[in-house]
Amino acid sequence: MFDLGENPKRVLCAWLWDELSPRGYSSLYDAFSGSGSVGHFFKKKNYQALCSDILQSHYWLEKALIENNDGTLSQPEMALITDESNLANASPYFQDWGDHYFTIEETAYLGLWWDNINQASQLSENQKALAYSAVYLTIAYWLAFNKTYLKSKPQSPREALTHYLHHLNNQVYQNQLPNAVYCINAYHIATDLPAHIAWIYPPGLM
Questions:
Q1: Helices (H) and strands (E) in the chain, counts
Q2: Disulfide-capable partner of 94 in 86, 107, 148, 157 (CB 3.0 to 4.6 Å)?
Q3: What are phi and psi of 96, to 5 degrees?
Q4: Measuring CA to CA, which residue among 50, 91, 103, 72 is closest to residue 166?
């Protein structure tokens, strides 16, 4: 039996694989996929992975690493995303978060990256998914420091985002299957997805 004192998703993936691999299945639907760790695990085991979640941030991460089979970001594309030349004129969408969850500078960078990604017409949807997900991981990195009070970070905003862009690039895996992700309530699509296995692990059980 597994020990949930360890990382729950990692333990559950290993347990699921031990249970399912002898049975000859080839596809799995994760109805409450969250960050997509189960879907990504089974994709790398050459299953067709299907995932759904209602959070936009989860959708983009799953699109980047599960639906995406071969789209990565080149060095020039990363440079375009992290370019700081328009920082002073960045979109103000995130300013209300300043001095609350993030520093004023960090909210300016969020606006800048939003502009850089959305104005880069040469990026595919899968490449944009990688870029958005790198921003989400950078946000998580900042929040880890900002829990008690707003403080400086070991990495500059550009260094942190570049780190996560490389990290996600390295996680892209081609399994030659039509993996798919959906930003929708599982209730509306579960019966329509042609998967051998439906994995149901609601957020309340985490």
A1: 7, 4
A2: 107
A3: -65, -20
A4: 72
